[in-house]
Amino acid sequence: MGLIGKLFGGGNNVNIEEEIEKKGFSTSDCSFDCDSCHSKFPSSVSVEEKDQLWNSTKEYGLHIVVASGKTDWPHDACLTDGTVGNAVAGWAGLSNSKYPELGASSTIKVTMSSLGSEELHTNEEYILQRRGDILILPFFIWIKNVSAKEVGALLNEMMPKLIECRDKKLAPPSKLDNFDDVTIEADGFQSYIFLCSHKTRDKRCGVTAPLMKREMEIYLRDLGLYRDISDHRPDGVKVAYINHVGGHKYTANVLMYSKTGKNIWLARCRPQNVRPIIDECILADGKVWPDKVRILQKFDPIEW
């Protein structure tokens, strides 16, 4: 892999392998040739192969994932007034750069996800998305049963507490004053893998994400790490769909978070890449391929 990505577009001499190592990651020599793959993308799926992927998206310090139980969303997934997703996106817009303690970037990313709960089938407020659950990464914290009306006040109170708990190695609070109905839970999984399935934005994502997810879950079952919606055993790896993250022409985009603090964003991934991704990025904790990396970030490890 020594020759891959030596030159970064625009004539700037950048050794991507050295940049990867500076960020605390290592490179892998895996060929991505997995004969046990069960599926392939249809020939109709076109992928931009020539662009340089390295640093093709911006760093961020916080990712809030809203559990919607859906696999596709309107073109602007967070636009619907009165919903938790809309409220979280509005709070994020006002809070970008407000928390420099998050790390190299204090930008806040918000996405809808296929993550869900029983309430999404039985509770009318959940069904209408006026109330819901949100996952805060890289903190691996769930805030559950939050009303869209109280999102802003709750997150304003919660964020300083999370940062303090992270820095002082304290357990996060299970409740907050003035938010009696809201519960806070530490997430028990070791890693999350997110795939864009937003076919309303780009049909390719609606085709590629299910194939990638299926292949990942087959292999995770073999490893004893697969977790379905009702399986909350600790130390598993959860695969879920999210809405538009940018770079559809580089499908499939794969975003990964580990409790060890590593955040890996790969692109141009295919089903035959799944086993190397899980073996190297998840289980080997951060080995990557220079020609498939969009960004790498390293956050403080989470101990809860």
TrEMBL record:
InterPro entries: Aim32/Apd1-like, Thioredoxin-like_sf
Cleaved signal peptide residues: none
Entries under SUPFAM superfamilies matching the protein: Thioredoxin-like (SSF52833)
The organism's place on the tree of life at top rank: Eukaryota
Gene3D superfamilies recorded: Glutaredoxin (3.40.30.10)
Stored CDD domains: TRX_Fd_Sucrase
PANTHER family: ACTIN PATCHES DISTAL PROTEIN 1 (PTHR31902)
Protein name: Actin patches distal protein 1
Species assigned in the record: Debaryomyces fabryi
